[in-house]
TrEMBL record:
Name of the protein: Ornithine cyclodeaminase
Keyword Cytoplasm: no
An example Gene Ontology CC term for this record: cytoplasm
EC number(s) per entry: 4.3.1.12
Pfam family, one: OCD_Mu_crystall
Higher taxonomy: Bacteria, Pseudomonadati, Pseudomonadota, Alphaproteobacteria, Acetobacterales
SUPFAM superfamilies recorded: NAD(P)-binding Rossmann-fold domains
């Protein structure tokens, strides 16, 4: 067999490469443009639950981006009590392959990739769907993806007010301090969901609930707001979709009936969101096939479950930068 070497980027390599906000957004935008033009394969994620879903599970994401010449499989653990062992709740590995021959091309620590691509999807959704003059952000959750949500959203909107809340006081205080240092502006820590979300322009729900609970109240959502939920378990009242003008998702194949988990799982299973009532997948808005927000009065909901192709796109961006800078290792296959 031909001598084959695999590119390997560990966590320190990924940190050293330090993709900029622009590089992150460009990579993810490119993946969505390819999806819009039918140049990708996105297979719905599958799950491996070692014991019980309230303790944690693995997500397995699979996809292909034809313009990049890459197939990819990412395995990410999502274990809510990892903080007790001083570990991130989400840790991931991305494997990249040649989609023509199946030959392995790279192994990458994808923990940061998971955080960055989630934040980029949140920010891209807001770029097309949020009120044009959004000034107040309310954000539930302080896990790794939360940092990139707020950082990339503020990169676009330069908020006047950022509110954050999470279950553990020590977590939310440390999170706010990190954001204040990095963003150079005040971040308000709230003690309740209502204080965080009520009347905000953009409401992001990235909670870690052990089971579904209607903690995000419909009455807090002002007309014209954008709601972005992506927790594993639903935290939304069933009535929320009654006040929504447009529902946008990242991929209906992952969001539709018969799939486990997800922030709007109950709404889909009870027929409150269907393929017929769905407005769009985000790729068709990014790709210019459909308009996003059309007026200031539209109340819009964007639900993203996580696209394999965004992981692949960021993996490719890291590999390209690593080649230029001489970062990483070669492993013999």
């Amino acid at each position: 067999m031909t001598d084959v070497q695999i590119n390997y980027l560990n966590g320190a390599d990924v940190a050293r490469l330090s993709l900029t906000d622009h590089e992150i957004m460009e990579a993810v935008s490119g993946a969505l443009a390819a999806q819009s033009h039918g140049q990708t394969v996105v297979e719905p994620r599958v799950h491996l639950v070692p014991e019980s879903s309230d303790k944690g599970h693995f997500n397995v994401l699979r996809g292909v981006i034809q313009p990049l010449g890459l197939a990819g499989v990412k395995i990410v653990g999502d274990f809510v009590n990892n903080y007790k062992q001083n570990l991130p709740s989400e840790m991931a590995v991305l494997n990249l392959f040649d989609p023509v021959t199946g030959m392995p091309k790279a192994i990458i620590d994808a923990t940061r990739i998971t955080d960055m691509r989630t934040g980029a999807m949140t920010a891209l959704g807001a770029r097309f769907l949020a009120p044009r003059n959004s000034r107040i952000l309310g954000h539930i959750g302080t896990r790794g993806t939360a940092y990139w949500n707020i950082r990339l959203l503020d990169h676009i909107f330069d908020f006047e007010e950022i509110r954050v809340h999470s279950r553990r006081p020590e977590s939310r205080e440390a999170f706010a301090q990190r954001l204040e240092q990095d963003l150079g502006k005040k971040v308000t820590v709230t003690t309740t969901w209502e204080a965080c979300l009520d009347r905000a322009d953009i409401l992001v729900e990235a909670s870690r609930l052990p089971e579904p609970a209607p903690l995000l109240k419909t009455e807090w959502v002002r007309k014209g707001a954008l709601i972005i939920p992506y927790g594993t378990m639903s935290a939304l009242e069933l009535s929320l979709t009654d006040v929504i003008d447009k529902v946008v998702v990242d991929d209906w194949g992952q969001c539709g009936p018969g799939r486990p988990y997800g922030a709007l799982r109950q709404h889909v299973d009870q027929g409150k969101i269907t393929r017929e009532t769905l407005y769009a997948e985000l790729c068709d808005i990014v790709g210019g096939k459909l308009l996003g927000r059309e007026n200031d009065d539209e109340t819009i909901l964007f639900w993203h479950r996580g696209l394999s192709i965004t992981d692949i796109a960021l993996g490719a961006a890291l590999l390209n930068k690593a080649t230029r800078l001489g970062v990483g290792q070669k492993l013999q296959f």
